[in-house]
Amino acid sequence: MNRTRTYWLVGGVLVMVAVVIAMIVAIGQGHDDELRIGVVFPLTGDAASYGEKGREAIDLAVSIVNAEGGCGGRPVRVIYEDSRADPKTGVSAIRKLISADHVPIVIGDIVSAVTLAAAPIAENNRVVLLSPTSSSPAITNAGHYIYRIWPSDLAEGRAIAKLALSRDYRRVSIFHMNNDYGTSIAQVFKKTFEAGGGSIPVMEAYQAEGTDYRSFLAKMKMDAPDALYIAGYFADTATIVRQLRELGLSTQVLGTTAVEDDKFLQLAGDAAEGVIYPLATGFDPASSDAQVQQFVKKFRSRYGHEPGWVEAQAYDAFMLICHVASRLDEDVTGEALKKALDTMGSYKGVAGVIEFDENGDVVKPVVLKTVRNGVFSRLAGSE
User: Model's pTM, two decimal places?
Assistant: First the structure.
């Protein structure tokens, strides 16, 4: 009798221990049906304005999805980490998201250099890394778990170089930001332009957030190029074009996608007029498309201003993840999400249709635009 009672007591204790362990595991991992998504964006530093735009869009997307029951019935929790647009910081951020937060997927980074630095960590841990805006050609071969919904610099750089050639510009000077983005896209432009018979009289790099670019512009003035290609972010581009006009130069300015930002128009003023640039996204806030209008309406209602291309890209990145996760019956792991992305076919977002090639690169057209009467407009004759 005593032995039997002992067995029951021991058995009861073991059951209680098992229950406690299960509870501890559950608390550590969150709800079994919770979908955790990591986000690595530059929330401070040189590219903080882009990171904050992306964060606003993702926060909106999370509120919409969770109000409707989550992704396939799974509530969503987003965990943000600040990369500061610095590769080393970005690596620490993704390591923390994977090891401490156990996320199966990370949205990031906005900056190519950080995406490239984080890629091996994601790849080795079989965690999907989805960038909304990184454009470095090197990302194409960064790994099987690496995806992006923004075209490679190859597409953008080639498009603007071909535009220059089509306008019979034979000599174009290049002034590019001294980072992965600026250097990469400048090299693509140079290679394409020279292959078409053009020449580059002056090509120099500049440091971000400078205040005086007149020495380069004076040098460029002596060479009298047909156009100036500025490969950098909107703030620097605005300063450069303003100083260019202050020197009395009417040289045609070619820019990058980063030009399309209301702050560029504010900073550049009248000097923004006539700048031509490629846009590697199909987002148009004035579109009559119901999906786009719903996004714009909800974004404006929440934040009091209209979304731009960064917000649209970040929103699409989150909604794409939710779309593929909703199709999974099994646990949402990195492997399961990768398989879902590889077999999804196409997905229509607010910035256009998303379809991946065999390298995880998005297949999207690049359009050419200009600043006309102080407004971003489609360039006449561009496809």
Answer: 0.81
